[in-house]
Amino acid sequence: MSADENTRLAQSAYEAFGRGDMAALADVMADDIEWVSPGDPDDDPNAGTFTGKEAVLGWFGGLASTLEFTTFEPREFIAQDDKVVSLVYAEATARDTGRAFVNHEAHVWTFRDGKLARFQIYLDTAASAAAHRAV
């Protein structure tokens, strides 16, 4: 697929996430997808590497149960060959502590045969961990 087609797939996945359509989001994923969310799972319950659609959809469930997003905006897309990088602005509150934080994130999408094969998040892990840390 072309870089433009991969960008459209990434955008459609964000749209599915935004409307809570997990079936449409799963449809974009390869069966053996690898999803990498940085950080220490002891500090951030959403950190870790998740393999396979079921595990990634479980990650989304965990995300929804631990964070309330007030803003989540993919603002720019940069694509070449099988890679798409999206620059995302996010504001969220950790449900367990009530602490809000802001993150400027980069998401790296790697496509294979028209499906998302790998997703890597780059974000301020210290800000995420601090929001989850008990006072």
Put the structure in a nutshell.
The chain is of the alpha+beta class and 135 residues long. Helices cover 33% and strands 44% of the residues.
Description:
This protein has 135 residues and is α+β, with helices and mostly antiparallel strands. The chain has a single domain (3-132), classed as Nuclear Transport Factor 2, Chain: A. Helices cover 33% and strands 44% of the residues. It is built from 4 helices and 6 strands, in the order H-H-E-E-H-E-E-E-E-H. The chain has helices spanning 3-18, 22-28, 53-66, 125-132; strands at 29-37, 48-51, 67-80, 83-94, 100-112, 115-122. Strand 3 (67-80) and strand 4 (83-94) form a beta hairpin. The radius of gyration is 14 Å and the shape is globular.
Give the key terms.
globular; 33% helix; 135 residues; Nuclear Transport Factor 2, Chain: A; 4 helices; six-stranded mixed beta sheet; alpha+beta
